């Protein structure tokens, strides 16, 4: 295949290897896939480029942050002198006049752009397949039998195969997170609007976000800071990890959810201490905080939807209308015969939904309000440094060429997990853990996700880096070992996992106890926590929570004993130390109480409650006796 030199090297300009396909350039550019002699064995690129970075400063000044790094750009992001075709042969082939702002950000930091990468047609898909590509989509380097994930399939494959160091893609409802998980690399969805969309072809304006791929956490952090314009600062640490228990246990197959649950609990507890880790149910949160979700109905489904299901329905309906707005004019004037059947069906479904809303005079006001409330409440819940741990995918990557029904089920299960951050405009990082053996598929990549409040991109990048450097590798190794033991029967069946069904049942009883406590039913709360302990006596939080209820009932002896049991299981549990100190003070064990409060301040120097108790006790001891 012939190449022609197109110009002379200048900073930030397209200079080499423009493709020459004559009158069939549109078809050839998308179909080309693999690049002879360019090392693109997986067919990630549609066009090789060589765009010079900004000049490197002279010595003794420090080099630019990304000097020596290379990156590729998804085919819906502008690079000057190259067409932006969105993976669709019907899209106009005009060459972009300027770079997208996100491209200039990486160039300005010293990285070199080496290509345009393929994507799902119109960036409208999750499998990473494109009928116009000569192999129907790039090959997944992690496992050629599996889909690479989309819509940013080419950028993910280019990074995973070692063709480049970094890649830019877009994430509307998983377009970066899904391929990162499928290919076993890191993927960042930035806070919506935190990175300029200038020069990026829109799909759904309130969902679209620029994203980034890398093979290691340190480089993702470095390039992510450049992309979001973050200044150099000391690493940030989450104030608390919230583990989305119901999302994790809904994952299939069960072995996948088991590994995720084990890794989440182990790694979060080791990084922050178990006192700063909580198991939460997103369903319960949405049901309480987003009442608009109760009003949503789905034709053909009787009864009330779960809040999670309703949030997915609301987000999907809003997404479809925005896609119709973005693609309607293009679809009306283009030659539809050039588009793939699947892409055509998706666009037509969005346009039909738009027409139906207009024809019946029924907007989606309820859905819009629900999405807005959900986004704001999730954002508030994750404020002040809290991070939600979620699955990157609801299902493990499926095989290439899966049937329409299987692919549809896979997409649907994944969108239910991915929609939360998308509709709320929140940032999310997808972190590769390793791979698990799946019968008939070989080694399948496994990833986990971190979600933060809007604008917390830097916190997520720092947390991702800290987890990968300090705890995740060992946590995944232990979880994988337990999974093998369970599979071979060496660990006594279901009891062999670090988190099993007993733990899930005990966690449910803990939630019931928490609800009773909030309602002031302290005796009922004690009963729930006690039942949980009978099911699983290894959960420190059950003892700590029962101690709090016992304190409310004035049972200081049993409260002190429960706190001591909790601390034998988790020596750094701050809540147990505080509650034991309170119980001991009531029992006139003042020196022991002082030691508990002082220990809290060693673990958390800024703990207000411990400082106040210490001050109160010291004042009491220093009060002179009356004559």
Automatic annotation (TrEMBL):
Domain Amidase per the UniProt entry, residue ranges: 65-461
Superkingdom: Eukaryota
Record InterPro entries: Amidase_dom, AS_sf, TPR-like_helical_dom_sf, TPR_rpt
Iron-sulfur found in the keyword field: no
Keyword list, A-Z: TPR repeat
Ranges: TPR repeats: 574-607
Pfam families, per database record: Amidase, TPR_1
SMART domains: TPR
PROSITE patterns hit by this protein: TPR (PS50005)
Entry protein name: Amidase
């Amino acid at each position: 295949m012939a190449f022609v030199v197109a110009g002379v090297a200048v900073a930030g300009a397209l200079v080499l290897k423009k493709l020459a396909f004559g009158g069939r350039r549109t078809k050839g550019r998308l179909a080309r896939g693999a690049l002879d002699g360019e090392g693109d064995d997986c067919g990630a690129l549609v066009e090789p480029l060589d765009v010079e970075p900004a000049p490197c400063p002279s010595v003794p000044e420090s080099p630019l942050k990304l000097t020596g790094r290379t990156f590729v750009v998804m085919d819906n992001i502008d690079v000057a002198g190259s067409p932006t075709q969105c993976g669709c042969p019907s899209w106009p082939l005009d060459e972009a006049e300027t770079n997208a702002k996100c491209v200039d950000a990486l160039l300005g930091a010293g990285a070199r752009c080496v290509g345009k990468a393929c994507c799902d047609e119109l960036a409208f898909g999750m499998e990473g397949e494109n009928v116009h590509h000569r192999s129907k989509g790039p090959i997944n380097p992690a496992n050629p039998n599996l889909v690479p994930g989309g819509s940013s399939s080419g950028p993910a494959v280019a990074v995973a195969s070692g063709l480049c160091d970094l890649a830019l893609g877009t994430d509307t409802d998983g377009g970066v997170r899904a391929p990162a998980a499928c290919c076993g690399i890191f993927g960042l969805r930035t806070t919506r609007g935190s990175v300029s969309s200038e020069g990026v072809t829109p799909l759904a304006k309130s969902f679209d976000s620029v994203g980034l791929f890398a093979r290691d956490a340190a480089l993702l952090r470095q390039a992510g800071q450049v992309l979001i314009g973050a200044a150099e600062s000391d690493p940030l640490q989450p104030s608390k990890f919230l583990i989305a228990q119901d999302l994790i246990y809904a994952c299939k197959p069960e072995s996948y959810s088991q590994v995720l649950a084990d890794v989440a609990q182990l790694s979060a507890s080791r990084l922050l201490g178990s006192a700063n880790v909580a198991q939460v149910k997103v369903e319960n949160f949405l049901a309480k905080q987003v009442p608009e979700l109760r009003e949503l109905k789905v034709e053909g489904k009787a009864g009330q939807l779960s809040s999670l299901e309703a949030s997915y329905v609301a987000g999907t309906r809003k997404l479809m209308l925005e896609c119709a707005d973005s693609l309607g004019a293009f679809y009306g004037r283009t030659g539809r015969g050039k588009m793939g059947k699947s892409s055509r069906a998706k666009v037509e479904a969005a346009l039909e939904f738009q027409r139906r809303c207009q024809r019946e005079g029924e907007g989606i006001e309820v859905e819009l309000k629900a999405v807005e409330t959900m986004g704001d409440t999730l954002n508030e819940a994750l404020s002040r440094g809290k991070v939600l741990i979620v699955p990157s995918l609801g299902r493990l990557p499926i095989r290439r060429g899966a049937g329409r029904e299987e692919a549809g089920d896979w997409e649907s299960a994944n969108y239910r997990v991915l929609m939360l951050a998308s509709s709320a405009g929140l940032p999310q990082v997808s972190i590769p853990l390793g791979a698990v053996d799946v019968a008939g598929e070989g080694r399948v990549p496994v990833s986990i996700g971190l979600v933060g409040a809007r604008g917390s991109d830097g916190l997520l990048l720092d947390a991702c880096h800290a987890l990968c450097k300090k705890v995740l590798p060992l946590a995944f190794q232990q979880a994988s070992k337990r999974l093998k033991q369970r599979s071979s029967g060496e660990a006594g069946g279901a009891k062999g996992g670090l988190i099993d069904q007993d733990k899930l049942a005990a966690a449910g009883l803990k939630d019931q106890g928490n609800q009773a406590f909030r309602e002031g039913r302290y005796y009922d709360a004690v009963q729930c926590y006690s039942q949980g302990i009978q099911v699983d006596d290894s959960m420190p939080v059950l003892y700590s929570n029962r101690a709090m209820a016992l304190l409310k009932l004035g049972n200081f002896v049993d409260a002190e004993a429960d706190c001591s049991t909790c601390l034998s299981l988790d020596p750094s549990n701050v809540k147990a130390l505080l509650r034991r100190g309170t119980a001991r003070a009531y029992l006139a064990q003042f020196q022991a109480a002082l030691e508990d409060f002082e220990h809290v301040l060693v673990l958390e120097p800024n703990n207000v409650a411990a400082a106040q108790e210490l001050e109160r006790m010291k004042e009491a001891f220093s009060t002179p006796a009356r004559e």
